[in-house]
Amino acid sequence: MNRIILRKGRERSVAKGHPWVFSGAVERGEAAAGELVEVCDHSGAKIASGWYSPSSQIRVRIVPDAPIAELVAAAVGRRGDFFANAYTNAVRLVNAENDLLPGVVADYYVGHVVCQFTSAGADARKNEIADALMKFAPGCLGVSERLDVDSRAKEGLPTAPAFSVLVGAEPPEFVEIAEGPCRFLVDVRKGHKTGFYLDQRDARAAVGALADGADVLNCFAYTGGFGLFARAAGAAKVTQVDVSADALALAKRNEGLVRSAEVRRDEGPAHEGRARVQGHQPPCDEAPEALRPPRNILLLGRGFAGVLRHYPLRGRGRRTPIVPGDGAHPRRGRPPGRARLPGRRLPQGRGADRARLIQNTKEQRQ
Fold this sequence. Notes:
This protein is an alpha/beta fold and 366 residues long.
């Protein structure tokens, strides 16, 4: 087994449990892409094992000294509660470093498992991982992979074909899944990620708990998950906005599985609409009217009891909040003469702890 020798002092983070060794920490040593290597301190003493990636800034991803099948079985076993209740039949079985399998994501959709292998080590072992998933995932019908992931290019890995079956049966064009009161059709071949944002389950439930009687605007809606949860919970009206006609078409089909409130779909570049909120000029003029500031910032605040904004990226790696009615650039302060509607906030980021709606009080709706 090849050895990767770290610079003096750089072994500390690995010894404390950090799962990555960056290229700048390596003093000497190399190996083939995906090869299992020994990570050693400056004196040559082994401190960990890992998968080597010569093309990546993350040169080694730490893995335990255990068989792949054992790691997959442990990951699936940790999700036992999901299979024991009827809340959902779609769950993430393997979540990369969290399950000690760096670069491996495996999502389960009613027996069909769709994987992304985003590290050289994971890609080199994908067939072994697929076989283990077939064995240990309850009722597994087949395991497929998605290669259309940008991070694969950084690992020197191919990004085509976009979708292929590794073992077992090929999934249908759309897989119907259940989550709480809702049903969704998932496009596992062309949809975002592996087809659906399974990691947003708690956030969708949190939004639904706050949506009764509200008028909800769901921007960057994709296939309508948050909006349809709001609708199922008793929202008076839900407006879904997304730049993708295909995503909205699938959202419309998902609406047929939930019948509670009026749902309106707006196809338009919500990103461009958001740019107007910040005072920038987008390349086109097709944003929904409610998203065109400055004057409609106030309409946005008054017209919807809740605003859901998904993944508010401002360029690569940047996130900044906007408060409706404030009109301020997040870091430049509020321009003079612009009215502010107190108490209205937009939920930001990911996870249930950040899925906030503005308070649906009678005073705010007036």
